C-alpha cells in the first residue's frame, strides 16, 4: 500500500497589536469647529427658524464694519438684552 505523505501546514494569523489607548486631556481635545452662517441657516430651517430681514441686515453691517466676535456679542447684547 502506498502511503500518502502529508506535510503539516502551519497556519498563523499575523495581527498588528492594537494601538495603545489614548486619553484626551484638556489641552489635547479638539477645539471644535465653527459653522458658517449658511450652514447654520440650513440646520435652523429644519427647526423652522429663520433670520428676519432686520437680523440679516444687522449681521451684514457687522461684516461691513469688520467687527470681531467679541464686538459682535457686545453689540447684540446691548441691543437685545433687557435693560436693568
Walk me through what this model shows.
- The protein has 84 residues and is mainly alpha-helical.
- It has a domain at 37-80.
- The chain is 42% helix and 0% strand.
- The chain contains three helices and no strands.
- It has helices at residues 37-46, 53-65, 69-80.
- The termini are far apart.
- 0% of the residues are buried.
- The mean pLDDT is 79.
Outline the biggest β-sheet. none
Estimate the strand proportion.
Answer: under 5%
H and E string: HHH
* End-to-end distance: 107 Å
Classify the secondary structure makeup into a structural class.
mainly alpha
Radius of gyration, taken over Cα atoms and rounded to an integer in Å: 31 Å
The tally of helices reads 3
The low-pLDDT segments are none
Give the rounded overall mean pLDDT.
Answer: 79
The number of strands is: 0
Helix content: 40-55%
List its traits:
single chain, 84 residues, mainly alpha, elongated
Q: What's the quick description here?
A:
This protein has 84 residues and is mostly helical. The protein is built from three helices and no strands.
Write the topology of this structure.
Elements: H1 37-46, H2 53-65, H3 69-80
Amino acid at each position: 500500500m502506498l502511503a500518502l505523505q502529508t506535510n503539516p501546514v502551519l497556519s498563523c494569523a499575523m495581527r498588528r497589536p492594537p494601538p495603545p489607548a489614548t486619553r484626551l486631556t484638556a489641552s489635547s481635545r479638539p477645539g471644535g469647529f465653527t459653522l458658517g452662517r449658511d450652514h447654520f441657516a440650513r440646520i435652523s430651517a429644519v427647526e423652522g427658524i429663520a433670520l428676519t430681514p432686520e437680523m440679516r441686515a444687522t449681521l451684514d453691517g457687522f461684516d461691513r464694519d469688520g467687527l470681531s466676535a467679541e464686538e459682535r456679542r457686545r453689540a447684540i447684547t446691548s441691543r437685545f438684552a433687557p435693560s436693568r
